[in-house]
Specification:
By secondary structure, this protein is α+β, with helices and mostly antiparallel strands. It is 34% helix and 22% strand. The mean pLDDT is 94. The structure holds 4-amino-1,4-dioxobutan-2-aminium adenosine-5'-monophosphate and magnesium ion.
Length: 499
């Protein structure tokens, strides 16, 4: 009799598992359908319990919140859950109930549990305790299962969506600019070569140099540093376009704000001057921040608390004066300061940290490039709001920027943010054929190879402008993460290309 009973029970179990479609935790939390039998699948965060009852907290990545599973050991055999530990994946069917505890809204009284994949506790590296971000970077294959990377990844997705929505609503066309290119858009020579040539024994010209005519494309090619030049071509026909793609820079900067592979949003607009360009940049940044506040409240609340805890471990003088939400509102609620390079050089020259030699790079004269310490001083200490700096010396900016009448400065604009420094770099472009050609010659930009770029200035040229937003720098700002390697799933940086 008992056998038959058990048999019937397992059939019932199987049927429960079979029929029920899985519901995501986020939907269970919001469903309110108490008493309903549901199925949930996910990864175990913790398991604890006593003789009669066990508690499993489960997360499936749909939300920062876990769901608690109550396992009555009179209903489910202890041996069925013995191999469940942190990191294991399980499928659980049970009754959704309103949680009597204060920590969560709902929980599940388990009726059937299936272990999908065990995670040997002696080997599984993510234990239910705080791991350092450095440690998690080495476990990038598993860090999606942590609260921090779950939250960052969901916010990152929301921002990608919001960027496309922002431009779509304004009638911009998204352009896929090429990733393999023969040109150095920024002229900084920081490119990764793309080749199929045998590096040990390459084909040579008579003078001993490498014969790239024999390479795959019949010429030298690289990974692109920017989609701008191609975006310009598209704008000079479609008016308003933007690119959003990966860009690559072989600069050997081992900093918390540089990646060798990062994503950039580059709008390019015909008939825009630099002021229109700045208006759009400010509108876009505020739109994205508002979108995050409105659409990612739980993840931002978690990240804000994480940041507070992290700040507590720092020395008083190194702590950020603002909480995450405050920082976001600081940008949202302030008109950005618009000023010129010449003005800020004056401010920096006479600033306390410059006079007391506290800057790592002292500002001595007009012409110096701004470092992030200067940019942050301007935003955080001097203006106390986001800053847009225009009219930089032409010698420290790219060849395509429009030269001002003073013949010393160009119509560049950088947007500077708290914590980050430069978040956007942009400019009005040189639309005059002869002046562009002159700049290219002055800066040794190969004019022959860029015949197509020059031709757009020969046929129906128009004033136009654009800018580039570093997506990961934006993500750092929105999430409060100090290191850029923690806001992209698989960071690429000098000596680091694992995963
Ligand atoms: O100032 P940049 O070099 O400007 C351009 O590439 C232009 N073509 C943009 C345009 O006008 N269409 O780069 C733009 C932004 C920077 O402000 C910064 O936010 C980000 O890209 N950026 C990086 N982010 C991460 N790692 C790096 N190595 C970066 N280099 C630039
Ligand atoms: Mg720049």
């Amino acid at each position: 009799m008992k056998k038959v009973h058990n048999f019937a029970k397992s059939i019932l179990k199987l049927k429960l598992m079979d029929k029920l479609k899985r519901t995501k935790i986020i939907d269970l939390i919001n469903s309110g359908e108490y008493g309903k039998t549901v199925n949930v699948k996910g990864w175990v965060r913790t398991k604890r319990g006593s003789k009669n009852v066990a508690f499993i907290t489960l997360n499936d990545g749909s939300t920062i919140h876990n769901i608690q599973i109550v396992v009555d050991l009179n209903v489910i055999k202890e041996e069925d859950i013995r191999n469940i530990s942190t990191g294991a994946s399980v499928s659980i069917t049970g009754e959704l109930i309103e949680s009597p505890g204060s920590g969560q809204k709902v929980e599940i009284n388990a009726k059937a549990i299936e272990v999908l994949g065990e995670a040997d506790p002696d080997e599984y590296p993510l234990q239910p305790k705080k791991h350092s971000l450095e440690f998690l970077r080495e476990k990038a294959h598993l860090r999606f299962r942590t609260n921090t990377f779950g939250a960052i990844t969901r916010v990152r997705h929301a921002m990608i969506f919001a960027i496309h929505k922002f431009f779509n609503d304004k009638g911009f066309c998204n352009i896929h600019s090429p990733i393999i290119t023969g040109t150095d858009a920024e002229g900084a020579g920081e490119m990764f070569r793309v080749t199929v040539l045998d590096l040990i024994n390459p084909p040579l010209n008579e003078d001993g140099t490498v014969n790239f005519k024999e390479d795959f494309f019949g010429k030298e090619t690289n990974l692109t540093v920017s989609g701008q030049l191609e975006a310009e071509l598209a704008a000079l026909g479609l008016s308003d376009v933007y690119t959003f793609g990966p860009t690559f820079r072989a600069e050997n900067s081992n900093t918390s704000r540089h990646l060798a592979e990062f994503w950039m949003i580059e709008p390019e607009m015909a008939f825009y001057d630099i002021n229109d360009d700045m208006d759009l940049a400010e509108e876009m940044l505020k739109y994205l921040i508002k979108y995050a506040i409105d659409n990612c409240p739980d993840d931002l609340a978690f990240l804000s608390k994480r940041l507070l805890d992290e700040e507590k471990t720092k020395k008083q003088e190194e702590r950020s004066p603002m909480e995450l939400k405050e920082k976001l509102l600081f940008v949202l609620n302030n008109d950005f300061e618009r000023t010129t390079y010449t003005e800020v050089i004056d401010i920096l020259k006479n600033s306390k940290p410059n006079k007391k030699k506290k800057f790592r790079f002292l500002i001595e004269e007009w012409g110096a490039d701004l470092q992030s310490e200067h940019e942050r001083y301007l935003v955080e200490k001097h203006y106390k709001k986001p800053v847009m700096v225009t009219d930089y010396p032409k010698d420290i900016k790219a060849f395509y920027m429009k030269v001002n009448d003073d013949n010393k400065t160009v119509r560049a604009m950088d947007v500077l943010f708290p914590q980050i420094g430069e978040i956007i770099g942009g400019s009005q472009r040189e639309e005059n054929y002869n002046r562009l050609l002159k700049r290219m010659r002055e800066m040794n930009v190969p004019e022959k190879e860029m015949w197509w770029y020059l031709e757009t200035r020969k046929f129906g040229t128009v004033p136009h402008s654009g800018f580039g937003l570093g997506f990961e720098r934006m993500m750092q700002f929105i999430t409060g993460m100090g290191n850029i390697r923690d806001v992209i799933p698989f960071p690429r940086a000098p000596q680091s290309a694992e995963f």
